[in-house]
Each structure stands twice: as C-alpha cells, then as structure tokens.
Amino acid sequence: MEVKNDKDFIATLREHGLQVTYQRLAIYQALYFTKEHPSAEAIYQQVRKRFPMISLGTVYKTLEKLYEVGLIQKVSPITEVARYDAITGPHHHMVCLECQSIQDADSIVGAQKISVPEQNGFRVLRQQVVLHGYCPACKGSITDSQS
Amino acid sequence: MEVKNDKDFIATLREHGLQVTYQRLAIYQALYFTKEHPSAEAIYQQVRKRFPMISLGTVYKTLEKLYEVGLIQKVSPITEVARYDAITGPHHHMVCLECQSIQDADSIVGAQKISVPEQNGFRVLRQQVVLHGYCPACKGSITDSQS
DNA sequence: ATTCTTGCAAACGGTTTGCACATAC
DNA sequence: GTATGTGCAAACCGTTTGCAAGAAT
To answer: By the 8 A CB rule, do B127 and A138 touch?
Structure first.
C-alpha cells in the first residue's frame, strides 16, 4: 500500500500492457484512492469533476480493461443474471467463469464456517462464499492462457 | 431434506404468509427439485412446459416474494449494479442491505483463509466472501422487523 | 502510419412496473 | 366481497456495441 504518484500509475498501466491515457489514469486513480467500492456511474461522476468531457461509456470500457488485466476487482455481480436456489441454509457456491454454471461447494469448503462476530458495528445476517474458477467440463476446453 | 409432496409445499407457502397459487407452487417446486441454480428465465422455460400461459413477469414477482419470506436464496447479484475495488488481493466484503454500501471485511474475517483444494475437478481461481447485513449507520434506522 | 482509445448514441437484455382481469381466501 | 396475484406490455436502467474522430506508440 505504498503511496503512488502519477508516474507509478503510468508504469503500472504499462506493465499490464495498457496504453496510457489521461482517462484511464483518472479512472484508475479515482478507484485507487477511495474505499467506497464505487459503481461505474459513481466513478464517472467523480472523474467528470476534473474531466467534464469524459463519457460513461469510456468508464465502462476502461473498468473492463482494468479488470481484465487484474488491476481492479469486481465486487459484483457474480454472474450476468440473478440465479436462485431453494436451499436456504448457509452454503457456498462455485461459479464457472466459462459456462456460468453454479455448483454447491459444501463438500469443498466443508465444515469451515467463518465466524463473524458482530464487530465494527456491522450486523451480519447472511454470508456467502463464492468460488470463481472452471468446472470440470470447461477446464479442459480452455485454450487461451489465464493470468 | 425430506421429500416434499404438494401438500407440504402448500403448507410451506402458507406458513410463510403467502397465498397459494398453482403458479407459485410450480415455480417453487421447479426450483426445489433442481440443483442447477437456474435463472428466472430458465425457471420460466421449465414451468412453461406444464403451464404454457405463465408469464415471465409472474416468475420474477414470485421469486422476489419467495426470496422476501426466506424460502429461496439469490445467488447473485449481490448489489444492484456492479461495484469495483482497486484492492485486488483476496479480501472480503460486507454489503449493507439498506444503503448498499460496501466495507472491506478483512478485520472481521481476518486470517481465516478458506482452504480450497482442487477437488471435485473444479479449479478455483478466486474466492470471495460476502457478508450481508446492516452497517452501523443503517442498523439504527431499521424499524420493520427482519425475519 | 498504424493501432488503440474515446465520445456519442443507439441497441441490448434482465428486471420492474402499471393496469385490467382473475383467483384465493 | 376484498385483498392479493396474474398476464401482458411498456418502461426502466445498467451495460454493451458500432462507428467516426482523436490520441498513443
């Protein structure tokens, strides 16, 4: 968590094979210097203060690029559309990045329950563990390299 | 996981304060008897085989109702819109059900790393723990009872 | 000079909403 | 009889896409 300056950000983008534009710099920095876990819209509003001409489309494209190369994380959604489950007890899910199939992960995560004391003043009602990866069917058919 | 018959389903719906319709029965049962974690669209297609007149809108409304009373679970999305995070290391999130704010949960879940052997043939690349609940700011302002 | 990126606007698709009719209670 | 649920279609809104102009290498 060292403090980064503009040069560091530029270097980071280059290291990840991205062309450097002031838009990308602004978007990445806006995200880097907040703890808010903002939406694309929120980032857009933030960046627009400095660069009024930037478009929401660019924000989406840039976030997707940054996500692809691993510079940022998507908190959600896990899958493209909502998925439902009649099993309401606490259990976890494995989501295939390729075919979007979901398997229950009880057998894997097993008895390892995460203890969540009511702490930080956050009252926890549910917990959900999501494992992202490749299911047996898709694992073999992945040809391109995964970082 | 006892095997339920129609009467049981009807009773379950009633116990949760829901009026019983054959649409609700069909939707709930379709979800109950699959491990596929289907989308609303998939459930719609399934139920339509028996009840061709059912509409997709009804499926959505019913799923939302079932979710509200706790009979089913939503696997995703966690929040209404995608949210981003520049911290790419494995860490977890607390999502406030009220204001949709997201906090990092490292301090709570702490060092409890979930060991995920490559098992079941599922290759796990990332894991994400999401805690749903109420943040300090919203906790006080919740007036209606939570089941 | 070539390739990649931006901005704009339209399209897309999952989900929600409004309303008249039908059904559950 | 009254409240609730359904079906249909339109609206909604976050996100993606296509394309011409602009910027990065």
So the answer is: no
